[in-house]
Amino acid sequence: MSIKVEDLHFSYATRPVLTGVDLTVEPGEFVALVGVNGCGKSTLLRLIAGLVKPSSGRILLGGAELTSLSRRQVAQRLAVLHQSLPPVPALTVRQLVRQGRYPHQGPLGLLRESDSMDEALELAGVAHLADRVLDTLSGGERQRVRLALAVAQDTGILLLDEPTAHLDIRHQLEVLELVRTLREIRGLTVVTVLHELDHAARFAERVVALHEGRVHADGEPAHVITPELLADVFGVAGRVVTDELHGSPRCLLDAAL
Amino acid sequence: MTTRPARVVVAAALLLVVAATHLLVSGQPPGAISGLLDGAADSQAEKIVWELGVPRLLTALLTGAALGVAGYVLQATLRNALAAPEFSGVNPGAVLGILGGLTLGLFPADSAAGALLAALAGGALGGGLTWLLSAGRDPANLVVHGLLGSALLAGLTTMLLAYQPSRFGNALRWLIGSVEGRVWEHLAFASWWIAGGVAVAWACSGMLAVLSPGDDHAASLGLRPGLGRAVALTVAIALTAGAAALSGAIAFVGLAAPHVARRLGGRVPTVAVVGAVALAGADSLAQLAGHLLDGTHRLGVPTGVITALAGAAVLIRLGRSQ
Questions:
Q1: Which of A253, B17, B179, B218 could disulfide-link B223, Cβ–Cβ 3.0 to 4.6 Å?
Q2: What is the pLDDT of residues B90-113, one digit of tens each?
Q3: Domains of chain B by residue range
Q4: Which residues of chain B lie closer than 8 angstroms to A80, CB-CB?
């Protein structure tokens, strides 16, 4: 499912965050949003998810105007992995993943077991954790469970807000590899906020750099991640080399400017 | 994890044991209880069991179920393990409503519908007060404001009593909470109300589950959090008012029962059973204590005293484990 953002403006109170963002994501694309803290990348994600309303501009999901869709219709089209999931006492993995059926089932009734739920647990590699209490899992396991929830939601779009935050490097890779696999199997359109430029270069087909409320650069990783970008957007002097094995750009950071 | 049929059997057995115990400790001969199984209250003792013992048991079960489910709904929607009818202004408001209505003579003391309406109005007022105090803030903080609101409402209730001290004796059962002295007429109305409330809460259990991790989570799964919370709080207020109209300010069942139910991996039906069993059990203890103190206290030992003592112990444990 495609995402189209047209001339999007957004302010928190009087502070402008986004000042005219245009972005088109084709069905099945894997896009990474990068930029410094507070540049509005998480806000852009929340706007696309319909969790906050833009000051002006349009958002289209699969050609349908976001404002014309109900909360439930939006949830049938896109799943969101927020930065964190607040703890819920005694909540088990199964109970959480079952919630993915909520947008398809409607407000009334219990959340029932279903095949798509078992499939989601299986795909995310957490079937063996199904009866564990969520709070007893490690950070990496929790992220995989949350991806299982997103899979159970059975949407065309997956939005992720820093899915690798607070994870050690092995689990960072594991989570991103899982996202890539899920995208291939389910044909998902993926838009993810990433802090780590090397991860963005390695896993995304397209990198969008936000700077001062607008799209500063947009394209293939090798075209976007350049020494100029490091200097202009991140305020860092650095070199960009090519990773021989993966063919993706890698940043060697030298000094803060 | 146990299977659903196994859980139902355990719940039914537990309810049966608690019900039998409750009737047996009432002091009537066991023959009078088993004699009722033929469907007719033949002897004087059987009549006493049927007219007093059974309604008292049902009052305890219904009140416990209503408070347990109300507490479960509040804890899920307000995301606070200490949320409970008595800490959200709802229960104290309902009690104030009943006592205010009685003092002003708005309804006769034996009117079930009058007490329920007054409890509903008071409960909505108490819940609304808490809502206003905490407007625009994180729902998890609602409990702090609920405590403030509850203290305010309790103060108003005290003022009401100080204004007419002669009514204090009658007011005591509402203030402490008691399942004694309820008859079939009271139950006829309240049972439908509470059963309906529990059914609605059950129907909303998917919504409650989606709401409990957070507003963003709920919205991303297709639920408007504000709308979901309004529905859930309405159900909680309705159930609390139903419980208060029957038994007054029974404390701690609404706080503790949801914790037990969650540990058992259960949801609305489990918490209803846990609440019912807890209160019927507490009332059995109250009756036993009443026999021990026989002759010295005309009122007997109100159930609310037992739940308050047991609940305080639970609360201390919870506070330490957090």
A1: B218
A2: 888 998 998 888 888 888 877 778
A3: 59-290+299-313
A4: 216, 220
Please list, in sequence order, all residues whose beta carbon lies within 8 angstroms of the beta carbon of residue B251, skipping any fewer than 6 positions away.
B86, B91, B177, B304, B307, B308, B311
Distance CA A230, CA B257 (A): 56
- A112 burial (CB, 10 Å; 0-12 / 13-18 / 19+) is exposed
Contact yes or no for B238/B297 (Cβ under 8 A): no
Domain A3-86+156-256: CATH superfamily is P-loop containing nucleotide triphosphate hydrolases (3.40.50.300)
Residue B31, H or E segment: helix B30-34
CATH of segment(s) B59-290+299-313 = 1.10.3470.10
Chain A residue with CA closest to B204: the answer is A108
pLDDT band at A32, cuts 50/70/90?
Answer: very high
DSSP β-bridge partners for residue A58: A6
Region B238-251: what's the mean pLDDT? 89
**What mean pLDDT do residues B129-146 have?**
75
pLDDT tens per residue, range A216-255 = 999 999 999 999 999 999 999 999 999 989 889 999 999 9
Residues 195-254 of B with CB under 8 A from A: 202-207, 209-210, 212-214, 216-217, 219-224, 228
Query: Of B88, B5, B25, nearest to B301 (Cα)?
Result: B25
Q: Is B321 a residue whose pLDDT tops 50? A: yes
Tokens of A154: 């059975």
Closest CA–CA distance from residue A97 to any residue of chain B (Å):
11
> DSSP per residue over B192-238, as a string?
HHHHHHHHHHHHTHHHHHHHTT-HHHHHHTT--HHHHHHHHHHHHHH
Grade residue A80 by pLDDT with cuts at 50, 70 and 90.
very high
The end-to-end CA distance of chain B, in Å, is 25
State yes or no: pLDDT of B155 exceeds 70.
yes
Question: Which residues of chain A have a Cβ shorter than 8 Å from any chain B Cβ?
Answer: 49-51, 70-76, 79-80, 82, 85-86, 88-92, 95-96, 98-100, 102-103, 105, 107-111, 131, 153
Beta-sheet strand order (sheet of A189-193): A78-81, A157-161, A189-193, A30-34, A206-211, A214-219
Cβ atoms within 10 Å, residue A156: 19
Span A129-172, pLDDT tens digits? 999 999 999 999 999 999 999 999 999 999 999 999 989 999 99
Strand arrangement of the beta sheet that strand A15-25 belongs to? A15-25, A3-12, A56-61, A64-65
CA pair distance A242, A249, nearest whole angstrom: 4
